[in-house]
Amino acid sequence: MSQTLLSKWTRPALAGLLGLLLLSSFLLPYTVTADEGVLTIGNAGEPQTLDPHRYNLRLEETLLNDLFLGLTTFNAAGEIVPGAAQSWQTSEDGLTWTFKLRDNLKWSDGQPLTANDFVYASQRLQNPATAASLAYFMYMVKNAPEVNRGELPVSALGVSAPDAQTFVIELSQPYPYLLERLLYPTAFPVPEHVIETHGDNWVKPANWVSNGAYTLADWQPQAFVAMQANPHFYESVSIANVRYLPVVNEQSAYNRFRNNELHVIGSFPVGELARVKANYPDELHLSDLLSMMYLVFNTEKAPFNDTRVRQALSLAIDQDILTDKVLRSGNKPAYSFVPDLIADYQTTPLLHIGKARAERLQQARELLASAGYNNSNPLKITLRHVSGVEGKKVNLAITGMWRQIGVVANLQQAELRNHFADLRQGDFDVAWAGWVGENNAEHYLTLLQSDIGNVNYGRFADARFDDMIKTAQQLSSAKQRNQQLAAAEAYVVDAYAVVPLYTVSVRRLVSQKISGWQNNLRDVHQIRYLSWSD
Amino acid sequence: MTRYILKRLVFAVVTLFVIITVVFFLLRLAPGGPFDGERRLPPEIEANLKAAYNLDAPLFLQYGRFMVNLVQGDLGPSFTQKDFDVNALIRAGLPVSLRLGLGALVCALLLGLSIGIVAGLKPGGLLDTLLMAVSNLNIAVPTIVAAPLMVLLFSVTLSWFPGGGADTWWHFVLPALALGLPLSAEIARIMRGGIAETNLEPFVKTAKAKGLKSPRIVFRHLLPAASIPLLSFLGPAMAGLLTGSVVAEQIFDLPGIGRYYVQGALNRDYTLVMGVTIVYSFAILSFNLLVDVAYGLIDPRIRIAQT
Questions:
Q1: Considering the domain A69-198 in this protein, what is its CATH number?
Q2: Which of A42, A458, B99, B110 is buried most deeply by CB count within 10 Å?
Q3: What is the pLDDT of residue B305?
Q4: How are beta strands A380-386 and A430-436 bridged, if at all?
């Protein structure tokens, strides 16, 4: 019986299998391996869009900075320099900014780029139909929130083009950090003539037109984004072809760098740091990132509405131990909520910094006792953090530090999105949070404003602090504004709404085949500043 | 027989419908939404986004709209991969996953069959013990452990193969091996049993007595008879390869649909997760259906019992 069955079934099955295999070789498209002439970079993940008005992620900014050029831009050292604008001036009251564009600016299809393109782009960003998730980055522009809410037409937006080379922005209140805000893709120009023809499909490689040093050559989802030099860019570039690969996993990035598949990677596993220092001293680029990792207390919830409890928990945490003994990855301990990396600004460190540990613990125990907690009635809390090695290590160490003052803390971890979704809803006691910000104190301090919305995770509210921030926001001089912000930080420091922990250190590896790489606080590296080492 | 097949077909369609419905509503229960990013999301902007993606409509209406589009073959726009729709993403990712799955199947068959045959010819011998030990290791070590070790050895240390990506055939060798090894062990065990058992059958003895050469006996007489149990095993195993590729795709940075599945779930990309779920379910149901039908054809008892 088996003899007849097998001749009936094995042969067709085997033939079918072979057929499938053959078919697959025709079905599946092939691409050539990245050759020597292509700069291949491991990016932290897959971009969700390359439309500068619809983007949201830092890893998308990396690509958009090569594809587009805003009014201002970064140099290799990450400093703000003229981009599409060659110069600018501000009115006395700080409300009107006039930008003079470079001569002969062109889109990558050779069409002239004028101030009208910036007007169109500004209006498109705020148009509710664009559904730009970061439209609020430019809410300081006159009427922007109203336009974005659909209450005013886009023509009411405070932008204009008196002539082809002059672009004027009117603000609703002074914003001295505007030049920095213009660095973000939300302020990039987009090609009206292409968008009007192709609609949402303008971002496809076949239709792509942009004004940066590079244009989009190809995008295979989850495989790579390929760029090539823009022939109409006002400067020539050294590296003609670039590929960004989404490499989410740090270990994979590290392996592929070691196997010479990637020239640059954004990060590698922290446990490899010692080995990397020994084996790749010239490739390693460790640099501080403008950022703040902190603990936030749910100030609406007892007992964290009690300043004494928050102060006690803050006193027990030793930032130096976290960075030097626990993480050991080059992160800098943070003693103030505003990172001390910020230019022209005087931070206010936590009041107990510099005191001996024993003294701090003693004070913490006394504070807890006065709040009604002792050995027979210990304070029990849940500390929430994002799952992952770093989060686990840091927060485990923190619970250990709290145990020294008799606090019993449980750890609860969640995947990134769940974590922050719960934080926004106020569903936590104490939680680990992070913020990668701009080079100004306002970007950090406003997180504690009562009306900022749900990024003030702890629902911290202090009327006087709010007033101080609002006063600062009326000032058009950056210097005066920074002083007022510093005063607000000094005022709020003894409220212990948050516990600053550390600023992030970026661990990059850059092949020696590449030169021109400069570490900088924003970790921005436009390809046009790089070259082959020959 | 037609009735039997029709019945299985209806059952498969109903199952698919139930899966789609359950997953659709389960997804909405997960905290957070597709528009939560790294940054602040003011309420008016969330409103704009929800309007743009029709997420402001009541849930049952969204479900209705999804089903109507699905019937027309449109899986809708991806909520997080904003420059692509789900159909385009699956068109790009499925060939990669298929190539990986087929590669793994070939590896598994080549390895499994050879080990199984050699081991089964002399059960209890030294070669059998050795080969089965290797096979047991392959079953015991999951892809998630084997794959990184393979990268470390063959990419980083020896630099024979790339550690990730899908540019050429070369890129698929390691992932296909990593995914195929556990399966090869199962195939080896099934084959070994089949060969050893068939080897004692009278018709094999006859063949030997007639003075046929060993290779001819193996390939002409032993192999076909011994591979019947393997056939029924391969149906579900192929579905397993497709879904099992999720891990391999993550480790080897392969742009297949398994990676979308993980990214989509983490990013709350409702439509993308739905799309991949449908592809996976369809694959599993099809393979099961094929096996059911094959059983029915081979064994009349099943046909009678189930109609």
A1: 3.90.76.10
A2: A42
A3: 56
A4: parallel
